[in-house]
Amino acid sequence: MNKQPIDSIIASISQVILGKDKQIKLSLACLLAGGHLLIEDIPGVGKTTLAHALATSIGLDFRRIQFTSDLLPADILGVSVYDRNAANFKFHPGAVFTHVLLADEINRATPKAQSALLEAMEEGQITMDGETRELLRPFFVIATQNPTHHIGTYPLPESQLDRFLMRIEIGYPDEASERALLKQAGGRDKTNDIIAAADAATLLELQRDVTGVHLSEALLDYLQALLRYSRESATFNIGLSPRAGLALKASAQAWALIHGRDFVLPEDIQAVLPSVANHRLQPVNNGEKVRYASELMLRSVAIP
Question: Does 156 lie in the same domain as 12?
């Protein structure tokens, strides 16, 4: 196991995203686990900058789509245009044909436009005009969204939320980090100074390493106990699905790898659980306890 590329990637991103070590590691863990990332927070705290820095630090192709109310699925997937000279239709690929796709403010687009990403995120392919087209490998969607109470937003349906391995928040910087940010020249342009610390082949190798991180039978019992509690507790209307269980396992393995271990500890599961579970759970008192749903689970299920 070679941890050096991971440390280099984290160091590169930390040049731009100051004082957010855990958010950076969670974002990288999501990518290493082969999932997709949803960043929900107020405008201006660095959601787009984090996405751009992550893609640049790994040397991946990066495209950004600004989601708006008039966005169409063809703007994301592509469109077939009739070629008069060839007397046939020619497909023009959309922004989804890239390694890292930033769906910026995804909940400002209509559900029709949002749904264009469902097959791409789940299957790594799109189907248009009766033809299936494979996407690049690796393929990673980072979506940002504003809080759902903001004007002009369309809540993501549960089926789409479940496509995201993790949801994180960035939050305000601490005072020292904000002072350093205010003193910087160039602001968000510092992403242009990032030198790639890896490439697509290295990333694919790291993703394979994640699957080899050992998870003991005792920790599988712990993971299943968390899943069972979410389904049987009177606190939640809807518990965690088997796909959520696989997401939790992969995320814990990636978190362990980031910290230089080839085995998972209970602390790894606990560290990633809020980001993996909170957007999938529906508490009975909806809204009031969503943020603390995973904390309730951790308090209620004994560590092996």
Answer: yes
Report the candidate in 270, 56, 36 with the shortest Cα–Cα distance to residue 166.
Answer: 36
Cβ atoms of 40 and 82 within 8 Å: the answer is: no
Q: What integer is the mean pLDDT of 226-240?
A: 88
Question: Both 229 and 298 in a single domain?
Answer: yes
> Of the candidates 144, 176, 211, which is a domain's last residue?
211
Adjacency order of strands within the sheet including 100-104: 62-66, 100-104, 140-145, 37-40, 166-168
pLDDT of residue 110: 84
What are the DSSP E strand ranges found in the chain?
Answer: 37-40, 62-66, 78-83, 88-93, 100-104, 125-128, 131-134, 140-145, 166-168, 236-238, 282-283
d(CA 45, CA 145): 12
Residue 290 has pLDDT above 60, yes or no: no
What pLDDT is attached to residue 24? Answer: 95
Domain boundary among 167, 188, 211: 211
- The CATH code of the domain that includes 192 is 3.40.50.300
Range of the domain at 251: 212-304
Number of C-beta neighbours around residue 128 at 10 A: 18
Model confidence band, residue 166 (pLDDT cutoffs 50, 70, 90): very high
Supply 83's token pair. Answer: 């070629």
CA–CA distance, 215 with 196 (Å, rounded to integer): 31
pTM of the predicted model as reported, rounded to 2 decimal places: 0.89
Band (208; pLDDT cuts 50, 70, 90)? very high
**Furthest-apart CA atoms within the chain: distance in Å:** 69
Q: Are 140 and 36 in contact (CB under 8 A)?
A: yes
The radius of gyration of the chain's CA atoms, rounded to the nearest angstrom, is: 20
pLDDT band for 301, please (50, 70, 90 cuts). confident
What is the rounded CA–CA span in Å between residue 105 and residue 142?
A: 10
